[in-house]
Design goal:
- The protein is mainly α and 132 residues long.
- It is 80% helix and 0% strand.
- The longest helix is centred in the middle third of the chain and has 31 residues.
- The protein starts with 6 loop residues before the first helix and ends in an 8-residue tail after the last helix.
Length: 132
């Protein structure tokens, strides 16, 4: 079982902050351009996910090669979809309940961060055992 705290977690946190900056910047821009909160959160999240993959595969986890790398990408996208679903649901419900969409987005960030960190640490970039 990979260590869930430590240097890797700190690198993941740094990468997440960079991706979050891109995500939140795009989200606020889209809101100012008149986009509805839930679709704006989805588009912005997608931008953040692209940056997150690029950084994660380079500075946080060991990236695989060949077919295994494609599997990592697919699993990463799957984990991103879990985060996206949580984000859109929380922002959409928050906006419908009358909360400022930016506050709902901040709540969604925390929930999504924990869910994707666990999925990526335990599933997506799980160290593979060498063939015996």
């Amino acid at each position: 079982m990979p260590v869930l705290l430590g240097a890797r977690a700190l690198r993941y946190l740094g990468v997440s902050v960079a991706a979050l900056g891109a995500d939140m910047g795009a989200f606020v821009l889209l809101l100012r351009l008149g986009a509805a909160a839930a679709p704006a959160s989805a588009l912005a999240y997608g931008l953040g996910v692209g940056l997150h993959w690029w950084l994660c595969a380079r500075v946080v986890f060991d990236a695989a090669d060949g077919a295994a790398r494609w599997m990592q990408k697919l699993l990463f996208v799957g984990s991103a979809l879990v985060g996206l679903g949580l984000t859109v649901a929380i922002v959409g419900l928050g906006a419908r309940a009358g909360f400022d969409p930016r506050l709902a987005k901040i709540a969604a960030v925390g929930v999504s961060f924990i869910a994707t960190w666990l999925l990526r640490s335990l599933v997506v970039f799980k160290p593979r055992l060498a063939a015996a």
